[in-house]
User: Fold these one by one.
Assistant:
Number 1:
Amino acid sequence: MEAHSAKITREMKIVLIACCLGVFMMPLMSTMMNLALPSLETEFGIGAKAQALVNASFLLASVTVMVPVARLSDIVGRKKIFIAGLIATLIGAVIGIFCPSFSILLISRLIMGAGSAALSVSAVAMITDVFPLERRGFGIGVQSTFVYLGIAIGPALGGFITFHFGWRTLFLFVIPIALLAFVAILNYKNERRMDTWKKMDYRGTLLYSVMITLTLFGMINLPSIWGILMIAAGLSVLLIFIMTMKKTESPVLEIGIFRHKVFTRACLAAYMNYGACYAVAFFFSLYLVNLGALTQPQAGLILLIQPLFQVCLTWFFGNLSDKVKDKRILPTAGMIMICIGISMVIFIEIELNVYFIGIILATLGIGYGMFAAPNTNAVMSSLPPRNRGEASGMIALFRQVGMSTSLAIAMCTISFIMGTTDNLSDPSTWGPFIEVIRTAFTIYLIMSIIGTFFAWFRGDKPKKSAPT
């Protein structure tokens, strides 16, 4: 395959099919689970904060293994890591189907989160490896479209299935998709040669895992004193981690990649993007079913609005990013739309206004569609091939940490304003819950404004393009 050929080869198609199926599963499972939360409250007797742990545990595991797995993919190969991710997903799904308690359900989510990390970091890296520079935006755009397709199908499908068959049935849908992805990836024969000379940095891996676990657990447990102490401990380990990486010959994370201004600021923009928007589905799922008195299928149809816009626009803007000279325009415009959508959420009332909710979700969907693929294309094209495993891991890491931050803010505001009285089946809690939403989304708005700054002021395009 010529380095700058514009033709989509058979190898590109095989990799794209496998990666699209792989990244389709996780958002599908996440969005379907959002509308299962009221059912979990009934079965396990848990409040709003505990319900947030269903997604928080998934993200915690994903973020914890993200960087080590990205490094490992450079050593043993993206394909093997992708297959490992599929296996972990299948194991987690089976446990989820038969889990006897809420704690076992969280274990299932932890395993699936680890599998998601393996799929995420290897998928983007494989697409970047096999697609030439001038078609890379197309490949990433198609993959991003499948991410949003999973998000789009999830609410309506999850609401319908949960309402008629129960939430455990949701895990069954992951199994055939994982098996199809497994068959597809086995046909990928010409994998790019890996950096077999590199060694796995076990000390760095341990420091990173401890740092992430302490920090994220601390965020989840805010505003308690234990949460504050855990964050402080996590930041202390972060400093040790950075100093250790600078001295290590073959580090788990090459700190030097953050010297690339475009790469670093585009990653920060992605973090702010997901940090500002991820909890929208969580809050709106609880709002529509509890305060709005909608059935789960009805709520699912409303939540379908945002990802439908994302699915329709992501491929288009990903393809367009290959043609637009100033690569900052599309991600920045997307962040501006997100700022508008987030600011509108602050004005929702206890009484449901379906049309206003629909406008909010449509605005956010347009913003996501304009931002995601062009920003990822900028990140992956700003670095040479030897750093793409780490770059792929960083994209997924900043995304997942952003999601974790979003949920941590949600859980913190629930604890601070509602305390232990967070059972939304009681109408007396609805007023405080609206206050939680307004407080949380004020914070999210600030994050989205900062993300807009990073999207535009991320540095000039390199004079010499990175090798393909």
Number 2:
Amino acid sequence: MNMYTIRGGASLGLILLLLGAGPAVAPADPGLDLQQYVRPRPRMVGDPFPYFVFALIGDSHIVKGGGADQRYLKASDRSRDLLATYVKDINNHDPRVNLAVHLGDITDLGAMGEFTSARRALDSLTCPLYPVLGNHDNFRSDAKAGWLAFARRQSANYTFDLLDLHFIVIDCTLDPYAPPYVDCDSTLRDWVAGDLARNSWKPTIVLSHFNMWERPWNAMFDTTLNYAEYRGMPELRKVLEDANNVVAVINGHVHANRVEQHNGIYYVDVGATLVGPPSIRYFYVYPDRIEVRHEDLSDQVLAGVVTGLCPGCCCCFGPEEVCGFIDGALSDKDFTIPIGSPAELAEIPEAGPGAISLQVRSVGVAGTSAGISSDLTGTLEISLHDVRGRRLDRCAVWKEERAIDIDLVRNLRAFESLPAGIYFLRVAVRGASATGKIALIR
């Protein structure tokens, strides 16, 4: 993601976002500064401590009264208890969770009483909550007013940032929702494309209630054998792929755990709170990767009630097939999403005889590194200049290998105090040189 190659004498713009930058471009809530939820510390590739952690809550389907939903294996009569336990587990998690996302279907019918009940549970979170609108939250033709009031927002499409990780929340739900119709229309796609372009230097995660890929069959529901793919979804996927900065799409809706990779993007399905073996997804953000881990619900009695519904499934698939689909394999629950790996810097384009090749890469929340390739051996001089050509900082490194990697932020201390603006990076060895332009954003 975001690789830049500069050969001798040529320059190419590089967007560099340093930690400690100003507030998010599009704050999720007026006056809410997410940076206060992250403890500042030096950041570098290989740091054993995550920079921040966020938690995912799947479909909770809060409903008042009634028993379990045997058709869809939902422990509906325990829905609020389950959501409250998820909140308690997130609050008690170590390391501390910095933000939580509810992936939609907060309620079962979109009734005001259901939203009120969900709010009582979710207000106990000790970290900010970012909700997604689900189809069950919009069974009423009220311009989505119930969910908007619950979420305290003016739109179900919004963005937010933490450090330099960018999040886009999208809504493809019709008003009112009419199963199984979903429409990611051109207005939404244009908005997403514009936001991705404005934040092109940031690793980005898209949060959606609806899954963007579907298997030909699904042991629960929503199969491509029954109806065509969601309207606008293939076109939306192309928007995300063309942007080159989307690392993952995370969704609920399918009540099952799954991860797949398509065209460089991880598509992550998160299971429901009240279906199958309940567990919580935690995302640990490092400079070069996001490690996804699951933890089982702490209340074993509640977990047993939910899990106990699965073998009694009366649908057309066998119990083992249904239960296995819901829970997912271990690889669907514990995995790693790369957001910029130092190993990729080794893939430096070959420089011609006597020339030098420079590749600069922004690696998530780590800073910036440069990969330098040349058949020339000697002292490699790296210098940083302002737009008037004045040298601001320099370092020298002995180069023997054909290709080496340099941590620019660590070696050029001027980066720590420079104001936002345009700067130039120059590398030279034995008369060969390459130059790159950097737009530094604070």
